[in-house]
Amino acid sequence: MIDSIRKREKMPIVLDLNKVDFERNIQEGEIWQQDAVFEFNQRLEKTIKQAKKHKDNEGNNPTIIHDAIFIGGARGTGKTVFLQNIKGFWKKYKDENDLDVKAHFCDSIDPTLLVDHDNFANVIIAHLYNEVETYLESKQCNAVNEDSFYQSLRVVSKSLGKRENLDDDLSGLDRVIKYRSGIQLVKHFDSYINECRKILGVDAIVLPIDDIDMALARAYDVLDIVRRLLGCPKIIPIITGDLELYEPIIENRFTKDEDDKSNEIIGSQKAEQLTQEYLKKVIPHHNRISLEPIDRLLPGMIIYDFGDTEKREPLSYKDYITKFISCLFGPLNSEERSCDWPMPDSAREVTQLVRDFSPSELKKENRAELWQRYIVWARLKQNSVAYSNAVTALQIENSKVKENNDYITLNELHSFNPILQMNDLTPKWQGKPFFAEQVSDKLNADNELVKRMSQHFEEFKNKKIYRSMPIIEHFYGKFKLTSESITDENIQETTSKGKDQDSRNDKRMLLDIFTYNNYYDLTLKTQRQIFFSRAYELLAISLLNFDFKLEVENKDYLDKRVHHWNSILKDLFSRTPFYTVPALFPTKAFNIGPEEELTDEEEIKLVSNITIRELSSDIAAWEVKYLSNLEYYKNDSLMPIIYSVFNKSFTQLRLLKDRIQKNASDKYENETLTDLALRFKYIVINAFATFMKPSPVVLQNVAFTSNLNLIRNFGEHRRYSPPLRDNVGYFFNFTESKSSEPFIEINDDLKDDIKPKALLLQAIANHPIFKLLESEEFKNGVFYVLPQKNKIISPIANDISESVLENTKITELNIEPIQLDEFKIFQEKLKRRKKLNISDHRLMFGVDEEDINAWDEDAKVKNKQLVIARAEFICELLNINFDGRITQVKFFNENLQSI
Q: What average pLDDT does the chain have?
């Protein structure tokens, strides 16, 4: 027999979506448990032949044989479907093997449907009676046996006794045994079965009993009826269930006293032994058939989608799952468990999954319904991350059907906003404690400022979120720009006539994208903190709000896109960077503790209109240029990789901040804002490559080097950086001739399924926020992060004499030259990195507000030129910039700029 099983060829398993669940008479190819079917038929053949031999051995003492066949498996493995189709399995097997035996298959009995004090023995007798009555009504039988049948029914019913005469404290057959002879009952039941068999004209009656283990309160009583009453060789019980559930039910019955459940009458070890012996008797080992786990069956499964039977193409389960994952996770490659999802654990769940997410459903343009179903699936599987992913993707999909000017930002999305997750009332099955993950040893123990910020998280101490999130961006003492660093660069936004500058200002754009200072501070003064959240959100929303229906040839449409992005960026730049401490606590004031006093004269506008204007135009142009690169992936399917990159990148950025904070004065003393922005660029691009490249990938950090020559020169950096060389370089054809634009040419050797990922990475790597960093004026770095203590303020300081300063005299306006001791005070302040105050600015121009107000209207322009020339000459002697440093101060802006 074993050899015949081994030699059998298995047919593919078919899941036909046109057919309803639990359909009877399934076709051979639709049988999932083919080995179990074969084994069942052989067991049943042997048992029916055994019953046939005993047919003529009827006597006063009935034969007791425990011949129940057990179909075992965990919940959802398909036991009920199997049980409903055993008649068809047997018929095919019997015909193929030309067997001379007959069996009647009863409808299955479900013990979970027993109510109140239903006695399972009564249920079995009534069930058999219904089977015979139905057969008699069909007039296909010889009525000569009817009287004998009804007589045996009366006798066996009388043997069970009347319910009202039984002790209510006893249950099941124990009441019968107390007042009636058990031997007589078994004998009469045996006769009743024999009469049933005669009318039905068979050798044995097959009685399927489903889900005994699910009838928890009655399970033992039902199983004991099988042991005591169904030991007749002419009736063959087919039982389904999970032995792991049977065992504790029976063991509990042996352990506890029936009259006092709290009284343990035998030890647990002895009860366990008795349980095993009891099960061996009721369900013999040789009659136990185990359904195979679903993971062994799926490799051989073929799916037929809904639709016209003649036109449907078969799809293997493996290919189906590939399509399913691609639909949900877009270009993700499963690296670092990025594509983990709650897979089906049983045949029932596989069927539910494929029906809810059929191959045709996965191709639909409108994916809102798909994500609604995935939310239901996540709830069914109680998977927190899957739920958060589905809610977030549904938010993105729903944003498309709103007003034309609607858009989505990361702050609105469930996966990216811990507050939204905390306030979601859906159970957080694998919820993560937000406080414990944010305020932990992950933070730099030496960073007092971070520790101070962490105190604000106390209000989240008992709050949970759906998924692990990176450490939020804190205020870091070294990650800010001093006003000297800003004013040393020419970022003025107005002309000498007080009008807005109309030319592009890359430095100002850099400042707006990577710094922020509109938060509450206890000192009432704020400094520009360096955050990466805004830059990442700009990249992310460019992908999530990308318009796949872009009309490239329609200029009016393109102008609308520029206007659309202008609206988005105005909103984005008006808000706090989304994943920062001030965003999490928008109404709280922070004690940042500035190292030096800030003066009003040196403040600049929060956000430049030039930045919004130029960046809107750049992103709209980027959409046009990379339309063909981005058409392969839907917006919502990009969300998982955007989150994975966010999690990975911000974890690495936090480590980078800790590293620079600790070694600032030693290894990173010349770090500039452009260097930090370049590090951000390499980290993000490498993270995207890591999550799209086939294995293996290099997991080494990509931007921790303190060598600024490498950071500022990508061509050199990629040579010494394995992640850039192997991860990013996998997608691009890096050559010396393309060192200035390394992401222009995609590798020609990529497989067809990888090319869309390469095109996506190309669009990302050439995003305007990254192209900005290729500006020629950034090549040596701008905006020093740390004070340049060793910087020589005035190399000719010792050579300045009163005769040189005589050139600052303005005879036409009776302005005396600046005195040498006054000039030396300027020098000393600048050497000590102190700011020039408004009195210093008056002295530099040689006039005050009253002097300017007294100027004749006709002479104002000429007088302005004279005092500016004086100030420019003094700045030249001090070796500081006049434009940017002096033109941005309050005195100049309020008194001279408008002239």
A: 82
The neighbour count for residue 852, using CB atoms within 10 Å, is 18
Find out whether 723 and 686 touch, Cβ atoms under 8 Å: yes
- CA-to-CA distance for 345 and 74, rounded, in angstroms? 10
CA dihedral 370, 376, 378, 384 (to 10 degrees): 110
Give Cα 389 to chain centroid, integer Å.
4
Please state the three-class secondary structure of 639-685 as a single string: HHHHHHHHHHHHHHHHHHHHHHHHHCCCCCCCCEHHHHHHHHHHHHH
Mean pLDDT of 588-597: 60
- The number of folded domains in the chain is 4
At 713, which amino acid appears? N
pLDDT tens-digit map of 107-138 = 988 777 666 666 788 888 989 999 998 888 87
The mean per-residue pLDDT over the stretch 148-158 comes to: 87
* 724-735 mean pLDDT: 90
d(CA 90, CA 47): 13
Q: What share of the chain is helix, strand, coil (3-state, %, to 5)?
A: 55, 5, 40
pLDDT tens-digit series, residues 492-548: 555 444 455 667 889 999 999 999 887 766 555 567 889 999 999 999 999 999 887
Tokens of 579: 């994943």
Cα separation of 515 and 535, whole Å?
A: 9
Could you give the C-alpha distances from 726 to 653, 702, 732, 741, 746, in angstroms and in order? Answer: 21, 11, 10, 18, 14
What average pLDDT does this structure show over 649-669?
A: 84
In this structure, what token pair is assigned to residue 523? 């000192």
Residues 732 and 591 in one domain: yes
From 246, 267, 291, give the residue that closes a domain.
291
In a domain, 473, yes or no: no
List all residues 6 or more positions away from 423 whose beta carbon is below 8 Å from its beta carbon: none
Q: Are residues 272 and 317 in the same domain?
A: no
Q: Are residues 246 and 203 in the same domain?
A: yes
Q: Is residue 603 predicted with pLDDT exceeding 80? A: no
Q: Which of 713, 744, 778 lies at the terminal end of a domain, its last residue? A: 778
- Is there a domain that residue 28 lies in? no
Any domain includes 435:
no
Residue 843: CB atoms within 10 A of its CB come to 19
**806 in the same domain as 745:** no
Does the pLDDT at position 3 exceed 60?
Answer: no
- Is-contact 237 284, C-beta < 8 A? no
Tens-digit pLDDT profile for residues 224-269: 888 888 888 889 999 988 888 878 878 777 776 555 555 556 677 7
The per-residue pLDDT for range 274-295, each reduced to its tens digit, is 888 888 888 888 999 998 888 8
On whether both 624 and 756 belong to a single domain, the answer is yes
Contact indicator for 397, 391 with CB cutoff of 8 Å: no
- Residue 66 burial (10 A CB sphere; 0-12, 13-18, 19+): middle
What's the rounded Cα separation, in Å, for the pair 251 and 279? 11
DSSP label of 292: P
Same domain for 261 and 342, yes or no, is no
Helix (H) or strand (E) holding 268: helix 268-282
d(CA 33, CA 346): 12
Task: Find out whether 13 and 32 touch, Cβ atoms under 8 Å.
Answer: yes
Helix (H, G, I), strand (E, B) or coil at 515: strand
Q: Which letter does DSSP use for residue 189 in this model?
A: H
Before 359, cis peptide (omega within 30)? no
Tokens of 632: 């392969």
Range of the domain at 233: 34-291
- Shared domain for 842 and 887, answered yes or no, is yes
- b (16+ CB within 10 A) / e for 778-804: beebbbbbbeeeeeebbeebeebeeee
Do strands 315-316 and 235-241 pair parallel, antiparallel, or not at all (unpaired)?
A: unpaired
Q: Do 760 and 629 form a contact (C-beta atoms < 8 A)?
A: yes
- One domain for residues 773 and 801: no
Q: Does some domain include residue 422?
A: no
